[in-house]
Amino acid sequence: MGFPQNFLWGGATAANQYEGGYAEDGKGLAVADLITDGNKEQPRRIFYRFPDGREGTIGLGECIPAGAQGILKDDYYYPSHVATDFYHHYKEDIALFAEMGFKVLRLSISWTRIFPNGDDQQPNEAGLAFYDKVFDEMLTHGIEPLVTILHFDMPVHLATAYGGWANRKLIDFYLRYASTVFQRYRNKVKYWVTVNEVNVLGGYWTLGLSNDAASEAGSKKSYNQGETPDAEAGLKFQALHHLMVASALANKAAKIINPDFQMGAMLALSGIYPATCHPEDVFGAYAFRRKALLFSDVLFHGEYPNYAQSIFDEYGFTLKMEQGDAEILKAYPSDFLAFSYYRTTVFDRFSANTTTTGGQQGAPNPYLQTTAWGWPIDPDGLRYVLNELYDRYQKPLFIVENGMGAKDTVNADGTIEDDYRIDYLRGHIRAIKEAIEKDHVPVMGYTPWGCIDIVSAGTGEMAKRYGMIYVDMDDKGHGTLKRSRKKSFYWYQHVIKTNGEELD
Asked: What pTM does this model have?
């Protein structure tokens, strides 16, 4: 049986980590443009300033203090400003993707390249024209665009002037943006993702949230000056409700513009295991997983599940539903489920190292090896998750992120022997094949994350490389930006050529 003949092999990127050109051709400022570089010792951060001149910083996922504004600071490096410069290298990069045999490339449109402030009445023509050129170049090479409309991309103006997604006005601003790109690229793009990893969004970076919005959004908790609610606070749930309503309305608008559009919802759904067969571990893992699946339940079943209230109760939160919200969610679900899978994690009733983001952290798994950044490597877990998701939603699945961050060494002759990356990808592709052949799970395609080296979203490093194409750029933005093929480039090229039949 194997992979279907129309299987979409490709790779995945995001504008804020890859595109660069952050202030060119009328592009506005996004919160990602305010985020400094970082590493294991010094996490990424966002500087803010109060009207009286006082300054401070927050980390990723935190809310900005009440009354503060995010700012750029001199003498700090901001990786998104150049990233790995797709903006000026798109023809070269697309040619390399075509050489690998890509059928699809996942990329995102920058909201502030189209609407610089987010609430503009008219779009920026230069921004629209840039993506016209990109999509035309892709289609010339036979590569289908898979476009994410909102990928960790928050216009600074919408955060400052409106309080981000805690404000329902953002639904209209988002719909204006989405409808504009649907109409403009209606004959160039078929596959769309409304929002990236909706279940892990939170704080100022991805939702534009500030502490002074908490009470307005329905949270019964209060926060003192300098204290920031984390990504699981009640404020986040109200903001994400607005975003999910916007996603459903975008699905509606898309089908009016082009009924052949395929609309996806995208979540971070790496797996979770109980540490033991102790009932508290088993149910703990089950409850932990539901905090991620809550959002896909809404986006695909069209309603909040029964267990949602228990999660809201945990945070002292009351969801505000406006008239018509329930009907919108029910009427316009997504066509396919796109998800990221990097690893699995373990729920241990004795461990405090857990989060509610679908298994991004957890107790160690003694049966698995890890990457240099400590992420467990679990190809079998991907087959498990594919079955879990299809059993639950009965929708086609698309693995739009998968990969491992690693430190690559350039040999004296310019070659890069990244066998560790090949081993990782081989194991996961085999797991997909087994899910298709043995479990009859419909999988649309596979786009490994960072098919070309891009800036790490979590750490801001270039040293943490995912790509099959090397980019000469270091953690501080120094380098020639020269592109080089890694060993994995040629391996993946052969995988695509044989439609996944030859993996060794």
From this structure: 0.95
